[in-house]
Amino acid sequence: MKRSLLAVLALGITPPVLAQSDATDAVVLTGATVINGDYWIESASIIVRDGRIECVGEPEACSFPEDAEIIDLDGHYITPGLVDAHVHFAQTGWLDGRPDGMQAPDVYPYPETAAALSANPDRWHAAYLCTGITAVYDVGGQAWTVTSDHATDTDRSDRAHVRAAGPLITHASARNRFFLGEGASDQLLFLPMEDVAGVREQVRYLESIGAQAVKVWYLAPRPDDRDRLDGLLMEIGAAADAAGLTMIVHATSLREAKMALRAGAAILVHSVSDQPVDQEFLDLLTGNDAVYVPTLQAGPNWGRALASVAFAASALIDDPNGCVDEAIQARINAPERMPSDLISPAWAYRSLEGNGAEIALMQQNLMAVFEAGGRIATATDAGNPMTLHGPSIYREVEMMQTAGLSPQAVIEMSTRGGAVAMGAEDEFGQIEAGFVADLIVLSEDPREDVRNFRSLTHVMRAGVLRAQSGLRVTQVD
Predict the structure, then answer these.
(1) Do residue 164 and residue 292 come from a single domain?
(2) By C-alpha distance, which of 401, 416, 382 is closest to 86?
(3) Which residue in 267, 282, 357, 364 has the fewest CB atoms around it within 10 Å?
């Protein structure tokens, strides 16, 4: 059996350790333009002490401590650290990181890959910080994604903040190819959605392991089963509310998205992509004060990955700052050709052709939500095929801008918007006194074009400033 590259990685080849430096009693960043969403301060000073922001403002507003290390960033731009509000630590960024890889177990031995992922989630923390992402929301994975210290010990400056939902509740598993069936319990991704007593027990289980949300994977039910499943979704919403847990729903069709909002969903992950959203949907979304998480690239990236293995042709990796895990790079750059009975070339062509129409509809719906005053958080669905941990954030913000959003709006959605989705808007996502000192330094102005997030020069996490060049996994030409 061919081993997954991640499984090999777990046997002893480890990614580079992030460089650590001890913060002085105080650090002053001075001279840069500080950008907080739709307002900014030219030639600002930021005083950081003990991992938090002590003062931010024009130089005369912040008295420099005598013991401070002063770092001149004249000509640069500082924003809060980026937040990716939809990731999966239990997935690799390639086809081997999904249970559907079990269709070709000799090529994608999912149990080995799953074990390797749980053994070393810090590889994804490294990719996130390398890219400028300082907080992530893991909205679905095995129990370890909640219970491991990678998610519970994130005050460290070498890890991103993590909020995690754990295994997904779904009605789809028993008839869907993603179902693990007899897989080990610690690799279980899905919890069954079968009856009222069962879904209440699933919510109690998620609460017991420390999950910070309840995620429901709510694909369009069969017409003859809609009423029953809609009722169970309402039960999950009530149970989650009673447990004090956020309900997150994956519902990409308009009918199911509306049903999710009626059931109390606080976050809708993925765009509505089957038809334009209507006023009823917008009223439900804004009435719930729910967060819309568009993940514009995730579906088209699936098509790219499947076409890659249909034709044994490598897909382009967009990694301007050298942050993609080397094992995943190797897998993507040398894809195995899948048999035509699993992935037909004709189907792959049709999938690629349909990407443009799907993206256009999702972008249209994103603008409808924005114009209605809905909350929006930037998110990638990182871990899914070709949606790579870390640098996928760049394409996502660029697609949001292309949809019609201003750069300032995208900056807000990619910082404070993500913190709101994570329930941590009083901790990070803004450069304000009292907030955790999570910020990024750019050489180009993101207010002009969000493509300038690619010009990352430094990352500060929990008050420790690192040059981006020291966070790279690979060298950049």
Answers:
(1) yes
(2) 382
(3) 357
CA 254 – CA 247 distance, rounded (Å): 18
Is-contact 444 32, C-beta < 8 A? no
Average the pLDDT over 194-200 and give the result.
95
**CATH number of the domain encompassing residue 387:** 3.20.20.140
Q: How many domains does the chain have?
A: 2
Residue 61 domain-assigned (yes or no): yes
For residues 203, 205, 207, 209, the Cα torsion angle rounded to the nearest 10 degrees is -150
Residue 353 corresponds to which tokens in the numbers above? 């052709």
| Average predicted confidence (pLDDT) for the chain | 89
Residue type, 233: L
Task: Indicate yes or no: pTM above 0.85.
Answer: yes
Q: Which 3 state secondary structure label does DSSP give 49?
A: strand
DSSP 3-state percent helix, strand, coil across the chain (nearest 5): 40, 20, 40
Q: Can you give the length of the chain in residues?
A: 477
Residues 6 or more apart from 415 whose CB is under 8 A from it? Answer: 36, 37, 79, 80, 81, 82, 83, 429, 430
Within its chain, how far is the Cα of 130 from the centroid? Answer: 15
H-type helices in 272-344, by residue range? 279-288, 298-311, 326-333
Question: What SS3 class is residue 257?
Answer: helix
